[in-house]
Amino acid sequence: MTRSALTTPPPGAAPPEPLPGGPAPGSPLGPHYSHCFGCGPKQPTGLNLTASTPDGVTVTAEFVVGGVHQGAPGLAHGGVLATAMDEVIGMSIWLLRRPYVTGRLETDYLRPVSVGTTLHLRAWCTGVSGRKAYLEAEGRIGAPDGPVAVRAAALFIEVGMEHFAEHGDADAFLAEHHDYEVNP
Ligand SMILES: CCCCCCCCCCCCCCCC(=O)SCCNC(=O)CCNC(=O)[C@H](O)C(C)(C)COP(=O)(O)OP(=O)(O)OC[C@H]1O[C@@H](n2cnc3c(N)ncnc32)[C@H](O)[C@@H]1OP(=O)(O)O
């Protein structure tokens, strides 16, 4: 794929190890926030992605493209597909249970995606260097080994809790994550 230098890990950036005590391989991942547009079950107009991790560092999910996701008639909107990429990538770095935000997201659209398609999504981290995490994702049509329709590469930046407290609603998140520790 056409990945830029900005989303390519520098030499020496190692992929993360599974977090001790983190989700067991094969276990489903709940939503990180019930109102999240990507994964929140209380977000009726969202993507409602449900995901699992096969190994503690990779995330897989299925996204059924519906009529509400159209751009051209009968075809998925590219921005919606980018959102799905952003979400599974965000889920994969959230496996580390440290707060990151998307800094840069690059997306390649390789095949049109029809309404009714089940996209099989997968995301993984290629390296962490300081506050920067380098991640990739892909969406395959119809099966985990189906043809690739969309690929993405991203740079996520680790932030402190003050990012959410200052700019968002940290209390709303913490209300659903009583076990979350700021400095575990
Ligand atoms: C209570 C809640 C708990 C936690 C809850 C977690 C929930 C788990 C979520 C999982 C699922 C979510 C999935 C969706 C994830 C989103 O959608 S996040 C929302 C979208 N993103 C945003 O809103 C981010 C907006 N941007 C910002 O806030 C700030 O620009 C940033 C990204 C924090 C960076 O600002 P900064 O902290 O001042 O850092 P800065 O010094 O500018 O940059 C640091 C380094 O990154 C580089 N960099 C920064 N931006 C870029 C860029 N765009 N391109 C290239 N390089 C960049 C800088 O060049 C710098 O590099 P070095 O000089 O160190 O080599």
UniProtKB/TrEMBL annotation:
Pfam families: 4HBT. Its main location: membrane. Keywords: Apoptosis, Cell membrane, Cell projection, Cytoplasm, Fatty acid metabolism, Hydrolase, Lipid metabolism, Membrane, Transit peptide. One of its GO terms (molecular function) is hydrolase activity. Its EC number is 3.1.2.2. SUPFAM superfamilies: Thioesterase/thiol ester dehydrase-isomerase (SSF54637). Signal peptide: none annotated. It is found in: Cell projection, Ruffle membrane; Cytoplasm; Membrane. Residues 74-140 form the Thioesterase domain. It is a peripheral membrane protein. Residues 1-27 are annotated as: Disordered. It catalyses: decanoyl-CoA + H2O = decanoate + CoA + H(+); dodecanoyl-CoA + H2O = dodecanoate + CoA + H(+); (9Z)-octadecenoyl-CoA + H2O = (9Z)-octadecenoate + CoA + H(+); (5Z,8Z,11Z,14Z)-eicosatetraenoyl-CoA + H2O = (5Z,8Z,11Z,14Z)-eicosatetraenoate + CoA + H(+). Residues 8-27 have a biased composition (Pro residues). It comes from the Bacteria. InterPro entries: HotDog_dom_sf, THEM4/THEM5_acyl-CoA_thioest, Thioestr_dom. Belongs to the THEM4/THEM5 thioesterase family. This is Acyl-coenzyme A thioesterase THEM4. It comes from Planomonospora corallina. The lineage of its organism: Bacteria, Bacillati, Actinomycetota, Actinomycetes, Streptosporangiales.
